[in-house]
Specification:
alpha+beta, Immunoglobulin-like, five-stranded mixed sheet, three-stranded antiparallel sheet, 2 helices, elongated, Ig-like domain-containing protein, immunoglobulin domain
Length: 141
Amino acid sequence: MDNSALNCMFKLIVFLWIVLHCDGAILADSQQQQTFRISPNDIEARLGEEVVLRCEVDHLAGEVQWTKDGFALGFTNDIVGFPRFSLNQNHSQGVYNLRITNTSYDDAASYQCQVGPAKHNRPIRAGAKLTILGEFHEVSA
């Protein structure tokens, strides 16, 4: 074998080693990672108002859900057990807003928009606090 053939074979072996041992790291670096285009912001709302916690994602790879004080609200538009809550989704636009109608004091909480991991994408999350304003009337027994 001449030097040219050995050099070519060496380059091929190095290339194959890199591909087999990097476990997709090269691909992960070349792909755009999922990121928040719009993260939810803290909101103050009056009792009975409607609020929308915004969450928009670029380069979405994982699934999106919201949590309320750490409790997962799910992945679908209708949120079981929370009839005044809905997830307004537009997958093609990357929009995953949480809508709460007729706010009550029970809605005051920390909310989080969470995007799960997917191949070569780490999970991301962003939070906001909802504060409900209004007079609180103590009920006497």
